[in-house]
Amino acid sequence: MRVLVVEDERHLADAIVRGLRRQGMAVDVSYDGTQGHEMAMVTRYDVVVLDRDLPGVHGDDICADLVASGALTRVLMLTASGSVADRVEGLQIGADDYLTKPFAFDELVARVQALGRRATPAAPPVLTIADLVLDQAKRVATRGGQPLDLTRKEFGLLEELLKARGAVVSSEELLERVWDANADPFTTTVRVTMMTLRKKLGDPALIETVVGAGYRTRPPE
Predict the structure, then answer these.
(1) Model confidence, pTM
(2) Residue ranges of the alpha helices (H) in the chain?
């Protein structure tokens, strides 16, 4: 899941980013509305965690522009005001959810995960192919009943391929969905991670390379 955090309180923003990354999400951050607006409009994010009162472009304007663009991105709006009128106004602008500061981090994670499921075509919580089982909610994967010791990026790659249900997913798409903006698009990051993932999955192979196009899952014959 790709998430953008737009929050001008740097300590809070950095804490949110660290916490979401620990949950296996690819997270970018902006500390002002101007940059946050540009990032939100250029990159396809599943969820934007958006502070309402931002310097530069106001959070309301970022939210409204996202809605007007027709993007599937879901918006979780943060605000220091807990009044009913303020929450109603934020939802009327187009926010999908609303969270008042201060908040419990576990609740933030749960809300982001719920919004992420709404941002993409529905996929079952448990993904399977042959004897491989991946539980998206519990963040665990097994093959033949044996747990797989996967890194966050390996798990993310496998999750994206299984969600594609046999369709080809390009390296560029995987880089965008699993890594954040700090990833160098000209590196061999995806290929190297894919190699280690395949080794951990073992035989028979479940991931096929489509030359010049990308990767896809394929049940063993």
Answers:
(1) 0.66
(2) 10-22, 33-42, 59-69, 84-93, 105-119, 152-163, 171-178, 189-201
Length reported for the chain: 221
- Contact between 198 and 217 under an 8 Å Cβ cutoff? The reply is no
Q: How far apart are CA 52 and CA 10, in angstroms?
A: 15
Does residue 116 contact residue 46 with C-beta atoms inside 8 Å?
yes
Say if CB 175 and CB 190 are below 8 A apart.
Answer: yes
Q: Profile the chain (221 residues) by mean pLDDT over runs of 10 residues.
A: 94 94 90 95 91 92 90 89 70 86 92 81 78 90 96 93 89 86 75 96 94 90 76
DSSP assignment of 9-74, as one string? -HHHHHHHHHHHHHTT-EEEEESSHHHHHHHHHHS--SEEEEESS-SSS-HHHHHHHHHHHT---E
